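Reopening this one. Same input as before:
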Amino acid sequence: MTTMAQDRTWPAPVVYPDNAEFWAGTAAGQLLVRHCEDCGKPHWYPRTQCPFCMSDRTAFKPAAGKGAIYSFTVCRRVGPVPYAMAYVRLDEGVTMMTNIVDCDLDALAIGQRVELVFKAAEGGAMLPMFRPAG
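Same output, byte for byte:
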């Protein structure tokens, strides 16, 4: 049986001083990825210290919002609405855990191209997620 990923309710994110710029970006419809200003490497999740060279000189840069599914699972028994959790490798080189939405859950595949979409959380914060690229 084919199941369509449906919208569900999403809890609001916790905003801290070190991630406030990230959430401001999502509110403006932009996915931001931290980059190290010393070694030049991007990293995910958006932490202030570079995990590669330990520099604290990092800055957010916009991501294109394109990538491919690295791994995924479809959760069917955890509630009334089945959903897909995935690792998506962005074209910028980082891999982020996210949800795949607005799709046929049975048609998802590793390596499938995806594109960024935003879904509203409780309280109105915008959460970055992905759907199959069209």
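So the earlier flakiness isn't reproducible anymore. For the record, The two ends are 23 Å apart (CA to CA).
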